[in-house]
Structure prediction request, 253 residues.
Amino acid sequence: MKDNRNYQKMITTKLQSLSGKRNISTVFFDWVHMMAYAFSNSVDKAQYEVREAAYLATVGKYTREEACLFGDCLGLLTMAFEYKVQDWLGAIYMELNINSKNAGQFFTPSHIAELMARMTFSNNEPLLEEKGWIGYYEPCIGAGSLVLAFAKAMESGGYNYETQLRVQCEDIDENCLLMAYVQLSLCGINAVCKVKNSLSGEETSTWYTPFHMINPAWITRKKQAPSIEPKRRQKEEPDVWVIPEGAEQLALF
Prediction:
């Protein structure tokens, strides 16, 4: 498909066909939650029973044929990410016009996120070159557009975000957090995603992407990180994280 909007349009059309008597926002977020449960249950056995029950309760609201359409949408979303790394779910959310019905949320357009990410990456590339990996902390992740754009900027610079990027992210809105979790999982990004109030510290749930869970070196924080190809070697882990607060408000610690 030459026009990347074809994926987006096909997904929105299928989701709209499922609305009928249902609110389209309910259909969209049921889809997001089911994807999140499926990804989590593939690797996080500690939370499997609770999340499998939640998955079954959600999918149980739909017929077998309708559930298959959700699967088709996941397939299309996967193909969309193979075409381009960007915030697809945020774009679909906006195209479905859910924002006017669901607390007035608006997601950062991909071209703006990419501009900010290039500035962030340019400022911090020396650190990445020196240490071999970089951490990215996002206290208000939304659908994950800035993290996805940062990963794309890393890739354009010749780095491997699957092995050199580690994300810690939070959002008070579970729906938004799970949108980000699904997209980071599909992109193979090592991330710990928390439904959390970053101001009060109150935490509801934690979601580990498959790429975080499958590599024990990242979980146990061994000093020697996995080697990467083709041209850069990771070194000992420093306590360094990019904290995006806007293009001119970046900080490291």
Summary: Residues 110-131 form the longest helix (22 residues).
